[in-house]
Write a structure and sequence with these properties.
By secondary structure, the chain is α+β, with helices and mostly antiparallel strands. Helix content is about 20%, strand content about 30%. The protein has four helices and six strands, in the order ββααααββββ. Strands 1, 2, 3, 4, 5 and 6 form a six-stranded antiparallel beta sheet that branches.
């Protein structure tokens, strides 16, 4: 994680940052969450993705992963939820604009993941002075501090 300041931890009561509150290098670390079999089953159920790599232990055991793995989009979804617990977007984010996302290693049932997020760019809008875009570098790490997923998220925020 490239940063010029130490990562911020969850700060109770600190909610809804505006574009003007962000600066390049600003960083946060989310709380962690353990992925369960129920997470996998629930994600398969609502997404409709019943690929045996996720849902058939006997099939998955014969793969290089040695067992069922959590869906990649499920990991992304959990990362979004963990990041939301920081509260920095609460009431101030206008839109999640895009993502560039890489899946580096599988997340297994029993893995505990967290998100490390760093501001890479802050760009006020040239045409709408009440808003702008923040680019975040995002890492999803497991309990061994291994990067499982990473990428960039672009989010539009209102200004003060």
């Amino acid at each position: 994680m490239n940063q010029t300041t130490a990562p911020e931890r969850l700060v109770p009561g600190r909610r809804g940052l505006c574009l003007d509150d962000f600066f390049v290098g600003q960083a946060w670390v989310t709380p962690a969450r353990t992925i369960t079999s129920a997470d996998l089953v629930n994600f398969a159920g609502f997404s409709g993705d019943y690929n045996p790599l996720h849902t058939d232990e006997e099939f998955a055991r014969a793969t290089p992963f040695g067992g069922r793995i959590f869906h990649g989009p499920g990991v992304f979804s959990v990362a979004v939820g963990l990041e939301s617990r920081l509260g920095i977007k609460e009431g101030t984010a206008i839109a999640f604009l895009s993502m560039d996302w890489k899946l580096r290693r599988p997340v297994l049932i029993g893995d505990t993941i967290h998100v490390e997020q760093t501001v890479a760019e802050v760009r006020p809008s040239r045409t709408k002075p009440d808003r702008g875009v923040v680019t975040f570098d995002v890492l999803v790490k497991n309990q061994r501090d291994e990067v499982c997923h990473d990428g960039q998220w672009l989010v539009m925020f209102r200004r003060r």
